[in-house]
Amino acid sequence: MTQATDETPAAAPSPSPPPASETSGSRTLDDLTGPIEAVLLCADRPVAVTKLAAAIGLSDDSPGTDQPLPPEAKADLAAAIDQLNADYETSGRSFRIETIAGGYRLMTLPRFARCIAAFQKQKVQNRLSKPAVETLAIVAYRQPVTRAEIESIRGVACGEVLKTLMDHRLVTIQGRAEELGRPILYGTTRQFLDTFGLASLKDLPPVETGARP
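Structure tokens predicted for Segregation and condensation protein B:
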């Protein structure tokens, strides 16, 4: 589940929702809400409207097809999502369903950003080795930085460590240096900021005098 922001557009309400808890077919909205929630809970990215409808049996297409969804089925899907979001709000849940990139996704509410960031920070620190944490700190404070510069500071090779940090999407390639050999420049990612609860690199804590990086 991903974190919503204040700028995240709310899920579009159904233009003409069926009355009460009925749909245009024989199934009720209550028949749809559970399957919708189950699919979105296991998805790690927005689920296209057509694929969501196919997965819950609201259309005859298989989940892998992209055939246009009939207007009635689209309205039923939107109405069921409206009902889920209303239920979430009434019960004080920490998430809601958002319309993202033409699909639907469960997103945590912005007011829970601080506790999520704290958890993510702890999780990353627990799974990163000490050399990885040290290398990440050098990249964060000295970016854009070359591998040779990092190795000069640490005194050891760091190719595998950099690969690990890139696999965790904490470090990325930012270009090449304008020097002999055009070495690769490394920097931190947006996920690095999100993981450590930073709005920007300006929020990095100051380095103590005499300390590295």
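The longest strand covers residues 95-100.
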